[in-house]
Every structure is written in structure tokens, then in C-alpha cells.
Specification:
Blueprint lengths: L2 H23 L8 H17 L4 E6 L15 E2 L6 E10 L1 H6 L5 E8 L10 E7 L13 H12 L7 E5 L5 H10 L2 E5 L3 H9 L1 H4 L3 E7 H13 L3 E7 L3 H10 L6 E3 H4 L6 E6 L10 E2 L3 E10 L4 E10 H6 L4 H6 L6 H6 L8
Parallel strand pairs: 1-3, 6-7, 6-8
Antiparallel strand pairs: 1-2, 3-4, 4-11, 5-8, 5-9, 9-10, 11-13, 12-13, 13-14
Length: about 350
């Protein structure tokens, strides 16, 4: 088997992993239990990745080993065969979206050559993402207006005709105000910043041109994998909540005030990215149940070929029933969380 054929098979295996996670989480969409949905997606993705021909190490996952029983940082995954790769996973990008049936939740996995993905235990990063037309014109260390004017010129637009995606958090309010002052439209999102980065890098399809503001650092590395496959551009820098996080970065060997380009976030030349919709959003349709099949909609990206594939798949309900994956089967065994306990729970890692 040639290396190229091997690579193509690997892309399909990643697609199966995101489909499995999406199908596992979908029965709990709108049920108000994000922890249960996330755990189902984690279990399904872990099981699917375990048999893949790779010697993978999870570098972006669900948390530290003592916080997450599966897909934790440093976990070896795959069947132990070549190639040796870094693996980044987000079984649900948008757990709140899933629990509340809000558009845009999806299951995500990416991989690249061993040692090529950036890692840090700091929770947040400031990010700037654009499409291929604005590649090379951005500088995250420059003012918001400076960047928007240059991006608009590269896109052939007036700055007021841009659409900027920003995570709706209090910490991003200064950036929101600066963007308003220049005049673009703002698409405020409540989560799902991997999907938002892919949308900005794929502006020909989404009509959204820029992602700005701070969000999850782990999601930033996943986003960089996708943006690089799409030939877009991305820069990032740490966002510190306190001095302890700044000191943590120093202990990790990073310079706390440096900026990162897309190749700093993922230096690989052979990157794979796969995502499957859980709830319908800008990028992907969500899981839909029909009389005989469950429908999934996915995208698969590969940097080496530059190919973007959208995959419509129909999964036989009888097979899903054998594995207890139909909504009515899941709900028979599901106990909604008590409100007091739900409010007290803390996810294993920050999500936006």
C-alpha cells in the first residue's frame, strides 16, 4: 500500500470517528444535559479512534489524565501502527449548543505529524482568522482598525461590508466596541469557536470574513489545523486571566507576550481535519432521524491535497438500534440532572 493511499484511508477513519461522536450525542440534543451528551461523544470517539492505523498521542483533549478518563492529554491512541501523529479532539465543539438545541454544535478531530501541534495549559487565546484572500495581511499585534482596513482591501470590500465573528464574552467587549467604531457587521456567538474559525477561513461559502477576540486555547489549535487546510491565515497570542497563568506559560518554556502564526500553532505539512454536525449551523447540517436512516453531514479537509469534501451519510437505523443509539433507546436510560447538581458541575476543560 502506498503512503498516499494510506493517507486517504486515514481521512475516512477520522470521518467515522466524528460521525460516531455526533450520532452518540444527537439523542441528547435539547435535553439540557451537556455533561451526559459530552460523555457519550467522548466514549464513541475514543472507541472509533482506538482501531485506526496510527500511533497517535492526544495533545488536545478532554483534560489532564486525573480529570478525564478518556481522550486525556498524552493518551496513546490508535492501534500502534505507523504513522506517528499528534491528535487533537473536541468530541463536542459547543456542548451548550447541544444541550439547548442551538445551531452550530459539531464533533471535531484533527491530526498531523508527531510534534507539530502547539500545546499549552493556559485556557484562553486571542485569535485572528481570515480566508486565503487576506492571507499575509494580518497582524494581531496591530490595532483592530488597522487589521480590518487591510482585510477589507484584500477582500475587495469596504470595511463596513465585512462580517466579523466574535465570541460574546465580557472580556471581548473592548474588541466589539473597536469593531463597531470601524463599521463592519458583527456576528456574536455564544460558543463553538472552532466552527467560527472554519467559517471565517471559508468566507466564500459562509459570508463571514474574520474571527476576532479571545476563546479557548485548545480550540485555537484545532482551528489552526482546519484553517491551514483551507489555505487561510491565523494568528494568536495568550490571553491571561491572572499572573499565575502568565507564570505557567513561562514554566512551559513559552514567551508570554509573543504572537503565534499559523505554522507555530500547527507546523505539519500533512494535516487532516474532520467534523460532523450535531445541530445544524453555518457549516454543517445536524443529525436528522428518518424512517429508516439517521442522516449525518460532515466535512473532511486535507492540507496536502487542499481538498475540501462534504459527506452526506445515511446510517441504517437497525444498526443504530443494535448499538443502542436511537433517541428512544437513549432516553429510556437517561436521567436528567437535578438543577442544583447541574449548576455545580465544572467541565474538565474550559470551553470558550
Amino acid at each position: 500500500m502506498t503512503h498516499q493511499t494510506y493517507d486517504r484511508n486515514l481521512a475516512l477513519e477520522l470521518l467515522r470517528a466524528t460521525e460516531a461522536a455526533a450520532l452518540a450525542a444527537a439523542p441528547l440534543t435539547g435535553r439540557g444535559d451537556k455533561e451526559a451528551a459530552d460523555q457519550r461523544a467522548v466514549d464513541a470517539m475514543r472507541n472509533a479512534l482506538a482501531s485506526v492505523d496510527m500511533k497517535g498521542t492526544v495533545v488536545i483533549g478532554e483534560g489532564e489524565k486525573d480529570e478525564a478518563p478518556m481522550l486525556y492529554f498524552g493518551e496513546e491512541i490508535g492501534n500502534g501502527m505507523e504513522p506517528e501523529v499528534d491528535v487533537a479532539v473536541d468530541p463536542i465543539d459547543g456542548t451548550e449548543f447541544t444541550a439547548s438545541l442551538i445551531p452550530g454544535a459539531m464533533a471535531v478531530v484533527a491530526l498531523a505529524e508527531r510534534g507539530s501541534m502547539f500545546t499549552s495549559h493556559v485556557h484562553y487565546m486571542e485569535k485572528l482568522v481570515v480566508s486565503r484572500r487576506a492571507r499575509g495581511v494580518i497582524d494581531i499585534d496591530m490595532p483592530v482598525e488597522w487589521n480590518l482596513v487591510r482585510i477589507a482591501k484584500a477582500e475587495g470590500l469596504h470595511p463596513r461590508d465585512l462580517t466579523v465573528i466574535i465570541l460574546n464574552r465580557e472580556r471581548n467587549q473592548p474588541i466589539i466596541e473597536q469593531v463597531r467604531a470601524v463599521g463592519p457587521r458583527i456576528s456574536l456567538i455564544s460558543g463553538g469557536d472552532v466552527a467560527a474559525a472554519v467559517a471565517a477561513a471559508n468566507d466564500q461559502l459562509t459570508g463571514k470574513h474574520v474571527l476576532m477576540g479571545s476563546g479557548g486555547a485548545t480550540e485555537g489549535v484545532l482551528a489552526a489545523c482546519a484553517v491551514k487546510c483551507l489555505r487561510g491565515d491565523m494568528q494568536a497570542r495568550f490571553y491571561f486571566r491572572d499572573d499565575d497563568e502568565r507564570q505557567l506559560v513561562v514554566r512551559e518554556g513559552h514567551k508570554p507576550d509573543r504572537s503565534f502564526g499559523i505554522d507555530d500553532l500547527c507546523s505539519g505539512d500533512n494535516i487532516f481535519f474532520a467534523a460532523t454536525g450535531i445541530t445544524t449551523g453555518d457549516l454543517l447540517h445536524g443529525v436528522r432521524y428518518e424512517a429508516d436512516y439517521a442522516y449525518t453531514h460532515s466535512m473532511v479537509l486535507r492540507s496536502k491535497s487542499g481538498t475540501i469534501r462534504y459527506v452526506d451519510a445515511y446510517h441504517e437505523n437497525s444498526k443504530l438500534r443494535e448499538n443502542g443509539l436511537l433517541p428512544e433507546q437513549v432516553m429510556l436510560n437517561h436521567r436528567p440532572p437535578a438543577p442544583s447538581l447541574s449548576a455545580a458541575r465544572t467541565p474538565a476543560r474550559a470551553r470558550g
